[in-house]
Amino acid sequence: xxxxxxxxxxxxxxxxxxxxxxxxxxxxxxxxxxxxxxxxxxxxxxxxxxxxxxxxxxxxxxxxxxxxxxxxxxxxxxxxxxxxxxxxxxxxxxxxxxxxxxxxxxxxxxxxxxxxxxxxxxxxxxxxxxxxxxxxxxxxxxxxxxxxxxxxxxxxxxxxxxxxxxxxxxxxxxxxxxxxxxxxxxxxxxxxxxxxxxxxxxxxxxxxxxxxxxxxxxxxxxxxxxxxxxxxxxxxxxxxxxxxxxxxxxxxxxxxxxxxxxxxxxxxxxxxxxxxxxxxxxxxxxxxxxxxxxxxxxxxxxxxxxxxxx
Length: 310
What we know:
- This protein is mainly alpha-helical and 310 residues long.
- The chain has 3 domains: 1-88, Serine Threonine Protein Phosphatase 5, Tetratricopeptide repeat (Alpha Horseshoe), CATH 1.25.40; 157-211, no CATH class; 222-310, Serine Threonine Protein Phosphatase 5, Tetratricopeptide repeat (Alpha Horseshoe), CATH 1.25.40.
- Helices cover 70% and strands 0% of the residues.
- Helix 5 runs antiparallel to helix 6 (107-120), helix 6 (107-120) packs antiparallel against helix 7 (125-137) and helix 7 (125-137) packs antiparallel against helix 8 (141-154).
- The longest helix is centred in the N-terminal third of the chain and has 20 residues, at 17-36.
- It is flat, with a radius of gyration of 25 Å.
- It starts with 16 loop residues before the first helix and ends in a 22-residue tail after the last helix.
């Protein structure tokens, strides 16, 4: 049980300094214990009341982490900012806030924090990673590549840096250079690496190589939805409709509520003139879509996989 007692909240202005300090410590450490056992909302209440008694760097960081766990990024950023008001230019706190800004799609703010860190330590790899990813999101590809190259010059063993570099080159449509980079790390047998290489092979119109990589991904992880979808698209574009339907059937055996697989299979059935089968698939897609509409309008699956983690 927590040492926390209800009377601590809403303490009067008449409580002496010693009692305030005692109450602060009780609230702070009850908040930490609450956070550790998963009582995050209670932790927020404790940290907030503690900070009302006394501004404290550690409390502000704990509060920021608590809000982050509750998916309240704005409040998490505010708490991190409070921590930085107490401890200016602290690198770990700046990294924490930069990461929050990035996850909240505030890329310019993330870049500002990274640049502040890099003025203090020009070789901070975490700041360079967030900088590169933020620049990439803003389509500032040359700047993103500079940050990645800096990381590689510091540590040539970091696989993520090569992956992000290949991803940037892919988005710049320099597919030959992207393929060269991704081939440097393909031996790691990671499904995301194979997925990126398959996409690059597709852009280079290397059908057999792309097909092979998609099949490798499915062997590594039979639940990789993107591999099934991309491979079905590859077959469809080559007018190999039987193979496209077969791979979608396999996907639906693994994932029976896979809305986009139903939708893609319905499109192929419709193109083949199989109206009944197409209608059934579209109905299943509608039923299982997280964005299911009730007005009969078509489902938009176009961005379902655009934000796969890098």
